[in-house]
Amino acid sequence: MSFPRSDSPAVSTLAPELDVLQWFNTDTAPTLASLRGRVVVLHAFQMLCPGCVSHGLPQAMKIHHAFSRQDVQVLGLHTVFEHHAAMAPHALQAFLHEYRIAFPVGVDRPLADGPVPSTMQTYALRGTPSLVVIDRQGVVRLNHFGLIDDLPLGALIGTLVAEQGRATALSSDAVVVDTAHRTGAPSCDAQQCAI
């Protein structure tokens, strides 16, 4: 299986730690360092993003239920770059309860100098939904903006799970999908919200 490759600085490098203000659905704040040895599927979303609610979050929940926690850890990242007042952590808590989202979800740390939060900037995410897949060695192997079909995503995760004993090259094995560049002001359609 192959995906188009990219020169994105966020792909084929060790994944930077997440800069999270608050965690939900976990007693202990997860770190990427503590999750080494597992494939990490990071789903960046906004609760008012149509594509996140209709496709991204249901897909993340399917992954959470389909794979062993010893092999794959799904993490949600509520990364708000618009409508900040409407998407505060207390509203997110109710959203997670109502949608029965059980995997850990962190609130991306807002920055004082603009609407785009910390982890979203660090990973060069272009909007929501975004999906980052990190292999067992902590290397970013997929950084995708927008909707992605279940079958190729499941195949990628299965391939990374099977790599348990193999060392991963930092550049030659990395994959990325959707290499278009960022556009102007934030906007949402039925599939995604772009910054």
From TrEMBL:
Matches recorded under Gene3D superfamilies: Glutaredoxin (3.40.30.10)
PROSITE patterns (alphabetical): THIOREDOXIN_2 (PS51352)
Annotated InterPro entries: AhpC/TSA, Thioredoxin-like_sf, Thioredoxin_domain, Thioredoxin_ResA/DsbE_sf
Origin: domain of life: Bacteria
Pfam families associated with the record: AhpC-TSA
Annotated Thioredoxin domain residues: 9-165
GO molecular function terms attached to this record: antioxidant activity; oxidoreductase activity
PANTHER family according to UniProt: PROTEIN DIPZ, THIOL:DISULFIDE INTERCHANGE PROTEIN DSBE
Name this protein carries in UniProt: Redoxin domain-containing protein
Origin species: Pigmentiphaga aceris
